[in-house]
Each structure stands twice: as C-alpha cells, then as structure tokens.
Design brief:
Dna Ligase, domain 1, alpha/beta, five-stranded mixed β-sheet, globular, about 400 residues, D-amino Acid Aminotransferase, Chain A, domain 1
Length: about 400
C-alpha cells in the first residue's frame, strides 16, 4: 500500500483518443458533430463507456462547451479515474498524474509522447487530490497537474513520498508557480527582466495608486483577474481613469497587478517565445510575431503572413547558437529557481537585451498541429523537443 494507492497490472483500462488527437482535429476545423462522430457510439461495458465519456468531454471542451465538458468528465471519473492513451506494451510505461478540471489544469503530455515508444496512462486524482486506490504499474510517473488545482498539489506530496517508481515534477514546486511568486523569485536574476507583480483586491486598487502598490510603479500596468488564463480579462491600463473603468466593469474581486514593460523589437513588432525546459535544456516551441503587445499564437496571423513565418523559421534555426547562448544565464536562473523537470516559459527579449519573462507553467500546450505544408520548419524543431522529453523519461526511469 502507498498511502492508499496500490500498484497493479493494467488489466483492461479504457482506451481514449485523448487531447492530442481530438485537438488536432478541432484545429483542422472539425465541428463538434464531426468530433462526436469520430468518437463513436456509446459502448456497452462501463469501462469502455468511461473512456467514451472522457473523449466526449474533451470534444466539448475543445469546441467551447465548458459546462457540458465538466459534466461529462465528472461522469467518466465516477466510473474510473485511470485511462490508457497510446503506445505498445513493450514501450516505456509512463504514468501521468492528472486532476479533474478544464483544459488548463493538466499538461497534455500525449502531444509530447504520441510518436514515441511510450505507453501513456492517465491517473486522475479526485477533487481533494486523492489518487485512485489502484493504479497500473509503470516505469516512471510525472506530475501533469498545474498550479490551477491547489487542492491536488497540496495532497499529492504525502501520497508520493514513498512511491516505488521515479516521480518527476515535485508538486510542491508546481504549487509555487503563481505570477506574483515568480516575479519575486526571479527578481534580480542575471540577464533577466520580469515585471513586478502583486495580488490586489479591487478595494485596494480603487484606494491606492499604482505607485504605492508596485515598487517604482507607474502607468501603464497590466491588470488581470486572479484565476484567468490565456489573456481572459487581461487589460493594459494607461491612466487612473482607465483603472476606474476597468474596476467598474470587472466581476471579480482579486487581481494580479503587473508593471507593463514595452518589449517591442527595433522594427516595431512584438515577439513572444514559448520555450519548454526539459531537465533544464531549453527548446523553442513557437515564436509569435504581432503588432499588438498581447500575443497569442492563434491570433497573431502567423498562417496568413509569409514574412512572420520566415521570422519564426529563422528563430528556430538559430535558437541553439543564438537566442539560447545570449540568454543562457537567464535560462539557468529560471531552471534553478523553478526546480521542475519539465515546464515551459512564455517570454520575450526586452529592449535592453535581457530575457523578459511573462509566466511559467507545466500545462502550456507544446504541440505540432500546424500544417507542415505551411510551416515546413516546425516538424524537425518540435521533434527535437519530443526526443529530449522521451530521453529524459528513459534516463530517469533507469535510475
């Protein structure tokens, strides 16, 4: 017994198509009806039905039906909390520890492992963070739960303390990855810039100026609801009047307040990089180019601009000998501070040449869904990241 969990043979686990396959289809424009048709009709056996329900939950989430997705996931997890994705029986057996919740809660590791000789199994905690009573035996486990599920991260250290297999990504370290902790922890690191960040109540933001709330604070600042992701509710505030209006229309009481740092390149464009760290080794996974400061790869118009894609292709080709060398001190500081085996960082280059860090997380999507006919430079680049991840798993599984 391992604090309530027992290792056992896999037996007949429900097979799921999973996030990587269904997200790729949604990314290609498949409608909800097409996704549900690809998942197929309801199976007869309860175990198979659990996998069917979980895939339908993913389809709902990917097509922006969050309430339906949550209900289907809960129904699936009431039957079983262990699922198999892919891989042959002879491959490395990887157990990903997950928590219930939306697509932002867990790292979709099937993107990283789907082409490798890895057998991926998902084990979900319950809402309080308790692992299933029986989990399949495996060669190595990894925490895929992000900082978005504090209950699971608080409960897991005790359950994993005597785990008989290697476990990657310390849940106690993941739990630290809030925006304000990261800003404080990385402040003053060599070669690195990060905007000072605090948590603030709406009442404090109304009562006090940003010069009192942030060290050397001045407009513009960034304001975002405490638990928002992917830019939801994020606003650039340029004046006290802007702040008053933003607070008047906000439907939450807690915010992150961050000093805005203008990171435009000399040519006037903004460039944001997503970098995966595998045992400290950095891998560039995308670079978005935009005329707007708030960049997401999907809204940056990369697919419509040959010039932007050429810029990204050059960044990927030169990353190891250029960007990674320029920022090696900052990368070392990030890895030593965060202390995780696998995570990713969204960042940019500041005007002074330092690395400007926006956020760090374990659940960011690292993928290769982009059409290789349009992005011919990406498959080989992403494969290097996947190979690095697989090599880490195999090395650490061997002790």
């Amino acid at each position: 017994m391992l604090d309530g969990s027992t290792l056992a043979p896999p037996n007949a686990l429900p097979l799921i198509q999973g996030t990587a396959r269904l997200a790729a289809l949604a990314f290609q424009g498949w409608t909800l009806d097409r996704l549900l048709a690809a998942i197929g009709p309801v199976p007869f056996a309860d175990t198979d039905r659990a996998g069917w329900l979980l895939d339908r939950s993913l389809a709902m989430a990917l097509t922006f039906h969050p309430a339906e997705a949550a209900a289907l996931q809960a129904e699936a997890l009431a039957i079983t909390r262990v699922f198999r994705l892919h891989g042959n029986e002879a491959g490395l057996r990887l157990l990903a520890v997950m928590a219930p919740g939306n697509l932002m809660v867990n790292a979709p590791l099937d993107f990283l492992t789907q082409a490798a000789d890895i057998q991926l199994t998902l084990a979900f905690t319950d809402d309080q963070g308790a692992l299933p009573d029986i989990v399949p035996d495996h060669d190595i486990a990894i925490l895929a739960v992000s900082q978005s599920h504090p209950a699971a991260l608080a409960a897991l250290p005790a359950q994993l303390a005597a785990w008989p297999r290697p476990v990657l990504n310390d849940p106690a370290r993941i739990a630290l990855l809030s925006r304000d902790w990261l800003a404080q922890a990385l402040s003053g690191a060599p070669g690195l810039t990060i905007g000072p960040t605090i948590r603030a109540k709406k009442s404090a933001l109304r009562r006090q100026g940003v010069d009192m709330l942030l060290p050397n604070g001045a407009f513009p600042v960034l304001l975002r609801p405490l638990h928002s992701h992917a830019g939801d509710g994020l606003a650039k505030i340029d004046s006290p009047d802007d702040m008053a209006m933003a607070l008047l229309t906000a439907n939450t009481d807690m915010f992150y307040l961050t000093q805005y740092i203008d990171y435009r390149s000399p040519d006037g464009w903004f460039r944001k990089y997503r970098i995966a760290f595998v045992e400290g080794a950095p891998f560039l996974c995308h670079m978005a180019v935009s005329e707007h400061w708030m960049i997401h790869y999907l809204n940056a118009g990369m697919g419509e601009s040959e010039a932007k894609r050429a810029d990204e292709a050059a960044a990927m080709a030169d990353f190891a000998t250029g960007f990674a060398i320029r920022h090696q001190r900052a990368f070392a500081a990030i890895h030593s501070t965060i202390g995780l085996d696998y995570f990713s960082v969204d960042c940019a280059e500041a005007p002074d040449g330092s690395l400007l860090v926006f956020e760090a997380d374990v659940a960011a999507i690292i993928h290769s869904m982009d059409d290789p006919a349009i992005y011919p430079y990406k498959p080989a680049t992403m494969q290097r990241c996947y190979d690095g991840f697989a090599a880490m798993l195999k090395r650490r599984a061997q002790g």
